[in-house]
Amino acid sequence: MISHVGYARWIGVNMGEKIQIYGNPSKMFGSEPWLITLGNNVHITTDVLFITHDGGTLLFRDKVPNLEITAPIVVSDNVYIGVRSVILPGVTIGENSIIAAGSIVTKDVPSKVIVGGVPAKVIKTTEEYFEQIQKNSIHLGHLKGKFKDRELKKYFNYKK
C-alpha cells in the first residue's frame, strides 16, 4: 500500500523532505498536482484542498472560448496547513507560517505569520504564537500513540 506522501509524489506533486499528510490525499491536490510545490517540513491536515485553476471561467467560455486562469501553488519550508483549508491558484505560502483551520487562502502569505479566516488574513506572527503556546503547553508533545493517550488521560483525570 502506498503512503499518503508516496501517493502525492506519484501524482506529480513536487515535494521536499519531511512532508506529513494527515488525511486522504486522493482529492487534496486537484487536477493539476504538478503545479503544486511543497517545501521541507510541511504538515497538511485532513480535507485541505489545493486548487490550481479557477473553474468560474467556465461561465464565460461562450464569450471567450480560450479563457483560462491556472497558476502554481508554492508552500515554502516549515508550514502547517490546518483542517479544511483551501489554497487557491497562484498563492505562495512563506516559510515558518501557519494556516488556521477552515481558512481560504486567496493571496500570498508572508513568512513567519499565522493567517486565518475567509478570506485568510494575518492574525499574528509565529513568534507571538510561540510565546503564547509555551505558556499554555501541557508538555506532552514528545509522546506518541498509547503513551501519549495514557498521559493525556492522567492529565485530564479521565476515568473509564
TrEMBL record:
**GO molecular function per UniProt:** O-acyltransferase activity
Q: Which UniProt keywords apply?
A: Acyltransferase, Repeat, Transferase
Would I find Acyltransferase among this entry's keywords? yes
Task: List, alphabetically, the CDD domains matched.
Answer: LbH_MAT_like
Instruction: Work out whether the entry's keyword set contains Cell membrane.
Output: no
The entry sums up its family as follows:
Belongs to the transferase hexapeptide repeat family.
Q: Which PANTHER family does this chain map to?
A: ACETYLTRANSFERASE C18B11.09C-RELATED, SIALIC ACID SYNTHASE-RELATED
What name goes with this protein?
Answer: Capsule biosynthesis protein CapG
Q: Which organism is it from?
A: Polaribacter gangjinensis
